[in-house]
Amino acid sequence: MSGVSRFGVSIETTLLDRFDTAIKQKGYKKRSEAIRDLIREYLIMKEWEQDIETVGVLSLVYSHHSHELQEKLSGMQHEDHDAVISSTHIHLDRHNCLEVVILKGNSSIIKKISERLSSTRGVKHGKLIMTTTGSGLD
Ligand code: NI
Asked: Do 59 and 45 fall within a single domain?
C-alpha cells in the first residue's frame, strides 16, 4: 500500500443520506470502506474497457440430458485453453448442470469466449462476472 490520502467531498445532504442508508444495509461499518470499494469497482470497469489482462468468472447452466452440448462446451474450452484456467462442473439436480469457467486474459478475449459459450444452443443461462487480477488494487 502506498500511503493513505484524505480528501473532502461536497455532496448534497439527501444524496449522502441515501448513500449511507444503502451502504448500512449492505453491512458497511464505515463510509470510507464503501467509497474504496466503489473506486475499485470503477477501476476494474476501466480495466475491462482498456482490454488489458484481467479475470472473468463465467457461469453456465444447461441440461444434463444434452450430452452433445457438454462435449461441445468442453471442446470450445479446449480450443481456448490459454485463457481457460479452470472449470468446475456441478450437478445441480437430476436434470441441470452448472459449469463455472474461470478465464484469464485480455478482456476482449474473455468476453468473446464467454459470449460464444453462453450463446451455444441449449445453454439456459450464461453470466460473466468481470473481475480483476488484483494487480494495482490495494
Ligand atoms: Ni452435471
From this structure: no
Residue 1 has pLDDT above 80, yes or no: no
> Ligand 1 centroid vs 120 CA: distance in angstroms?
17
The answer to whether residues 70 and 25 belong to one domain is no
**To 5 degrees, how large is the angle CA 73–CA 75–CA 76?**
65
In the reported structure, the alpha carbon of residue 23 is separated from the centroid of ligand 1 by a whole-number distance in angstroms of: 37
Cβ contact 53:130 at 8 Å: no
Q: What is the C-alpha to C-alpha distance for residues 101 and 83, in angstroms, rounded to an integer?
A: 10
Is 4 part of any domain? no
Model pTM? 0.86
Number of structural domains in the chain: 2
Give the tens place of pLDDT for each residue, 109-125: 999 999 999 999 999 99
